[in-house]
Amino acid sequence: MVFPVDEIAKTFGNKYEAIIVASREARRITALRLAAGGAPEGAVKPTVESLKRLMAKDVKWRYVERSQPAFAEGE
Fold it and tell me: Helices (DSSP H) in 1-75: which residue ranges?
């Protein structure tokens, strides 16, 4: 299945944020499958499943403010 970037941008607003959210959802799906004993035979790949869920607006996400900078100055 192909997910055009333009369609993702229309649905989500920002294509770069959409890809970050989709990749985190794919990691979550993978972790759930591993906890359940692995993916069933013929299962859809986690990346495809996460993009489907993102396009259907089934993925809930929010911004979290960082309490500290990502890196300290001088490093």
Answer: 5-12, 15-35, 46-55
Compute the distance between CA of residue 5 and CA of residue 40 in angstroms, rounded to an integer: 29
Query: Greatest CA separation found in the chain?
Result: 50
Q: Residue 69: pLDDT band by 50, 70, 90 thresholds? A: low
Query: Can you give the pLDDT at residue 42?
Result: 84
> Which letter, b or e, does each residue of 37-65 get, where b requires 16 or more Cβ atoms within 10 Å of its Cβ?
eeeeeeeeebbbbbbbbbbeeebeeeeee
pTM higher than 0.85: no
Indicate the Cα dihedral angle 11, 44, 21, 3, nearest 10°. -40
